[in-house]
Amino acid sequence: MEQFPSFPDLPEDEEAAAPLSFDAEDVPLPIADEAALSEWINRVAAQHGCVVSQVQYVFCSDDYLHQINLEYLNHDTLTDIITFPYGEQPELAGDIFISVDRVRDNAHDLGLPFEQELHRVVIHGILHLCGFGDETDEEEAAMRRLEEEALAMKDDATTAK
After folding, report:
1. 65, 30 contact by CB (below 8 A)
2. Do the Cβ atoms of 143 and 124 come closer than 8 Å?
3. Tens of pLDDT along 5-21?
4. Residues 111, 114, 116, 118, CA torsion sign
5. Model pLDDT, residue 17
6. Pairwise CA distance, residues 86 & 11, whole Å
7. C-alpha distance from residue 122 to each of 16, 20, 81, 102, 103 (Å)
8. What is the DSSP letter of 2?
9. The three-state (H, E, C) secondary structure of 97-136, written as one string
10. What is the reported pTM?
11. In which order are the strands placed within the sheet that holds 20-24?
12. Which letter does DSSP use for residue 140 in this model?
């Protein structure tokens, strides 16, 4: 897995920090049910032998994530997600930045509901923290398969209720 440079910690209350947190920088928070999303993320991590220790999702705009991409990765491109790991498996720790603009555009281009594409990108970050890469064609194909399996787990949990 590609190693990312250290990203400065975002402010947090150490004593009250939850294993998973969802924040927004310059966009409205696109998460309707944080508890259900957290439960699903934890199940996917467990399926891969990992446990969520301290993962912060930050939802933002294209401009915000582009600036991070330039500043910390030297990439002058738009992207839907950047994952900064801070620990090693099996304990997952890191910051996951997601561009809501990019997710919305990708969902439109793919003819998918926004929420489905958002969930794919959310779990993509966790899969990176679990040690899965997507640099080569083989890794990318494996990542897509893992995303689909995770999305099916979410769908199964929804229909079981």
Report:
1. no
2. yes
3. 444 454 444 445 689 99
4. positive
5. 63
6. 15
7. 23, 12, 8, 13, 10
8. P
9. EEEHHHHHHHHHHHCCCHHHHHHHHHHHHHHHHCCCCCCC
10. 0.86
11. 20-24, 51-60, 91-99, 81-85
12. H
Type of residue at 132: F
Residue spans per domain, the chain = 18-156
Residues pairing with 96 in the sheet: 57, 83
What is the homologous superfamily of the domain 18-156 according to CATH? Metalloproteases ("zincins"), catalytic domain (3.40.390.30)
Q: Which pair of tokens denotes residue 45?
A: 């991590």
Residues of the chain scoring pLDDT < 70: 1-17, 157-161
If you count them, how many residues does the chain have? 161
State the Cα–Cα distance between residues 69 and 50, nearest whole angstrom. Answer: 27
CA neighbours closer than 13 Å in the CB half-sphere of residue 127: 22
8 A C-beta contact, residue 95 and residue 17: no
Largest CA distance in the chain: 45
DSSP secondary structure letters along 50-61: -EEEEEEEEEE-
Reading the block at residue 159, the tokens are: 């229909």
Residue 22 sits at the vertex; the CA angle it makes with 44 and 98, to the nearest 5 degrees, is 80
